[in-house]
Amino acid sequence: MIHRLRLIFACFYLLAIHYQSIAQPKSIGQVVRGRVYDALTDQPLGGASVALNSPATLVVYTDSMGIFRLTDVPVGRYNLTVRYLGYDTQTTAEVLVESGREQVLDIGLQTGTRTLAETVVKGQRPDANLTSAQSITPEQILRYPATYLDPARLATAYAGVVNTNDQANNISIRGNTPNALIWRLEGVEIVNPNHLSNAGTLGDRPTAAGGGVNMLSAQLLGTTRFLTGAFAPTYGNTVGGVMDMSLRSGNDERHERIVQAGLIGLDIAAEGPMGVPGSGRSYLVNYRYSFTGLLGLLGVTFGGEDIRFQDLSMNLTLPTRGRGLVKIFAVMGNSGNVFTALPKDEQVSAKDLYNIRFRSQMGAGGVTYSRPLGQRTTWRTALVMSGNQNSRYQEFAQLPVGFPPNGIATQYDRNSNVRASLTSSLGVRMSGRTTLQAGAYLTRVLSDLTVQRIPSVTGPVLPPDVADGTVAGWLLEPYANLQWQPSPQLLVQAGLHYTYFSYNANSQQVEPRVSARLEVRPGRTFSLAYGLHSQVQQPGVYLAHLPATSASMVDNSGLGLTRAHHLVLGYTHQFNPSAYLKAEAYYQYLFGVPVALVNNNATAAFSTLNLLEATEFVERPLRLVNGGNGRNLGLELTYQQYLTKQLYWLLSGSVYDAQYRTLDGIWRESRFNGRYAANATVGREWTTDFTTNATAANAKARKRVQTWGVNARLTYAGGFLDRSIDVNASQGQTTTYYIGYGYTNRLADYARADLRLYWRKSNPRYNRMLALDIQNVTNAQNQAHSYFDAFQRKIVPQYQLGIIPVLSYRWEF
Predict the structure, then answer these.
(1) CA 462/CA 443 separation, integer angstroms
(2) Residue ranges per structural domain of the chain
(3) Cβ atoms of residues 566 and 227 within 8 Å
(4) How far is CA 777 from its chain centroid?
(5) Which residues partner with 499 through β-bridges?
(6) What confidence tens digit (pLDDT) does each residue in 61-79 have?
(7) Backbone φ, ψ for residue 120 (5° rounding)
(8) Rounded-to-5 percentages of helix, strand, coil across the chain
(9) What CATH architecture does domain 151-812 belong to?
(10) φ and ψ at 117, to 5 degrees?
(11) For 154-211, how does the pLDDT look when each residue is reduced to its tens digit (9 = 90+)?
């Protein structure tokens, strides 16, 4: 009897323990995995230690293929540190572990000094730039305020970068024109990858390097490398900046989805393995349709305009035999805005009299292949094609009585750009201290431009065909870069880049590059970099012309390259893996800048350094020569603390001076000479756990994690310059006439505050985020420019964006 009682008691005890274990809440866990490899040769690094720190500490070692895996990692933010003998110890901050998606990391290590001031995360190979470089992650794009999910808008939070108009992402870097920036995708230069490239411009015409919304969604992007000066030899055809975007690979082990809806648009992404899970083959696809387009289908307009855009992007990752890797990628999209003339009783400005249609299409695609050749060499090659086309048509709905008879009644602009590039390179580790990277880009460039201005009556002020032509040629850019590390504290690089553009005989340049980094004490590093850089002219500069019958024939097809010397001195103080202070002083001297050949009061101040729009110059073309100069100098300070202990800071400030000189020898202020800029971005997170109750129907009680975030950004910058308007000349026209080409009127300082609030909830199998992004929260009125309104018969100031609330909902599963 006692034996039976003991047995029954033991059974009840075991059942109690069992039910207690069921009721005990389990933490939400996720997988963190990836690959560690040599950044130059792609060789896997087996035996590297990978550590996740804060809120938990987890350590694992890579296998012989460089693969690591951490399972059941609690949801939260971590610092990830990778160590391997003979390589830099690399710490990556702000690694976000979420319940809905695995965190998959590619970590390329470099041999070099004992510490690395700037860390690189998630799928980005470190480049050779020792100065003037920043890494922008998709997680930052989603967290920082006022980004529109766009790396270029986030870049304005860093020192030396100012947005020319907050309706678009045209950025001026260190006082340069936004046209000096180039966009690259998977290591190759592409055409402008932005929707609504006419956004925020003076003449409502497209720009070469900006637009309202980036065509590549943050759902698809890996780490973007943003460079502002003294570029390594691998970069060419720019004198101002590089936005180097990469695409992340899809998850090769499980299928995942992201759905996001907000004022930007409806965004849907899917990724997963192709074939056997874990084989390395994966797909990633994303589709987006604008929210304004959805409203347009319902007849809702913004400021009288029907604005729409959509895009589709994809990336396929396919390993091959011999540890080769093939990536096939593509992006395509279209955008447009339509304005319909208002009824007579509602007309208040000249724009209200017109029907205006703007259309834009863009596409890019290619294939990349990389493969190790032995233990010390890796071969990479890529074939990439990109193209875009922009068209704008403007006409009077009905010519008003008494409107200027000599004005322009119809305007038509069309431009298209195509780039087809083949590139190949070799990365060779010659010894433990010396590496060599060499390669070449061969690009077929084809640009067409048509600009027509048809007057309202006979006797045109301007010829109907202002510009009509084609720029076609081969752009050849071989390069080589040698890196040498004579000691653990010193790293030296030297190389060459050569630019040759076959469009004319004046477009070639040998460009030496050299840089060095010295670690005087652990975490305290000095750097010095010099480079000669060059860039081809915009198609509108080459093609602007007057007919041969005019008194002054204009033909600018023989213009050569614009060139620039860059010199950058930097100091970085790494306080800890999550915080650093960086200071850089720079000097840029530009030469070979196209300026007006005829030196008189009306044209003496013209320089292409002040241009922004694609057809800004062609309406009143001038004969140009490569006789101008420019000089930009400044000092930049940045303090960044990554998101650790639920708090992050990004403080940046810059003082600079941007001037240019024409044939009259006078130095003038550049259009983009704001003189100073300051940014403060700060964010705070609060995380709480709560537990669901176990019931008979749901016996698996688990923790849920909720995170609240508040992010704010303050921007204050000096105003740009505007041209003086000739009121008398503008009176009899439908367009604005200016007094000369100099920028002499300084606009008021720019000030803006942005706020982003979000709530994230993590469940065992998915996570959700609700966010409110209030841009220009104080509704500050920042002037963009002034123009002469032919309807109101007066000068009218044009302002940038006011307050815009952007509500979004994101679901990952």
Answers:
(1) 36
(2) 151-812
(3) no
(4) 24
(5) 509
(6) 999 889 999 998 988 888 8
(7) -125, 135
(8) 10, 55, 35
(9) Beta Barrel (2.40)
(10) -65, -40
(11) 999 999 999 999 999 999 999 999 999 999 999 999 999 999 999 989 889 999 999 9
